[in-house]
Specification:
Radius of gyration: 18 Å
CATH architecture of the largest domain: 3-Layer(aba) Sandwich
Number of domains: 2
CATH superfamily of the largest domain: HUPs
Largest sheet: 6 strands, mixed
Distance between the termini: 35 Å
Order of helices and strands: HHEHEHEHHEEEHHHHH
């Protein structure tokens, strides 16, 4: 499921940062969850096996059925957590994706004013991905808070471990791939199957046709992820070519 990072200095440093960040939220989660998350990091660092029997702790995962959020669900379940994948049912999500999400036991929620906000962004020629992501995370956190679930996880690929787990309002936000110093290729490998790389959704494609400048912003985002080590050159090249042809 997970590979040991070995002598990779950068990833080892990031994992040490994750352990420090975990200490800062220790009193906000159950001790059992703290120990299990710590064991996950130590497994990545040293290959140290740990007890993976189920524990009485639910974790909500912001679920898109993409590689990063799917890897997050699989890893947390492998580690013994009770995972609740929560997918925001957006207009642009195709039926096969919804069916795939159902196979992971996803719960579906909605954002009532989603298209109003997105249409306003598109009309202004403004980037929509960041706004979309923030609205999705708010809806997922709201679901967790209403059910008393303390941990909300995402598949965000960040370049540092220091902000991979932190308190955000009433919940603890866990960016699991960053917490485990994972990159895109490692996330895909967790799926155990082929994964088709592509950038954006049908809503983004429609917005980019109307405002081609959005392609430039998208390429800048890919290059930021490349510089951060979240993706490698081969993946970056595929994503950039996919952006340009839309």
């Amino acid at each position: 499921m997970l590979k040991v990072v070995g002598e990779d200095f950068v990833k080892r440093y990031r994992l040490q940062q994750s352990l420090e960040a975990l200490e800062r939220v220790r009193g906000r989660i159950s001790e059992q969850s703290y120990e299990r998350l710590k064991a996950l990091v130590e497994y990545r660092l040293f290959g140290k096996e740990f007890d993976r029997t189920p524990i009485d702790e639910k974790i909500v995962v912001a679920f898109s059925a993409g590689s990063d959020s799917t890897a997050t669900v699989k890893i947390l379940r492998w580690a013994g957590f009770e995972v609740v994948p929560v997918m925001v049912k957006l207009p642009q999500i195709r039926e096969p994706v919804l069916l795939n999400a159902e196979s992971y036991g996803a719960v579906f929620v909605e954002i009532p004013n989603y298209m109003e906000v997105m249409s306003e962004q598109i009309e202004k020629g403004a980037p929509i991905c960041g706004k979309c992501h923030s609205m999705i995370m708010e809806a997922v956190k709201d679901y967790a808070k209403r059910r008393g679930i303390k941990i909300v996880a995402s598949g965000d690929l960040l370049s540092v471990g220091s902000i991979s787990i932190y308190l955000e309002g009433d919940v603890v936000k866990l960016n699991l791939p960053a917490f485990l110093a994972m990159d895109k290729r490692e996330a895909i490998s967790v799926l155990g199957r082929k994964y088709a790389l592509g950038f954006g959704c049908s809503l983004w494609e429609s917005a980019a046709r109307k405002s081609p400048i959005l392609k430039k912003f998208a390429i800048q985002r890919v290059l930021r992820e490349l510089r951060a080590g979240a993706i490698d050159e081969e993946i970056a090249r595929k994503l950039i070519f996919d952006i340009l042809k839309k």
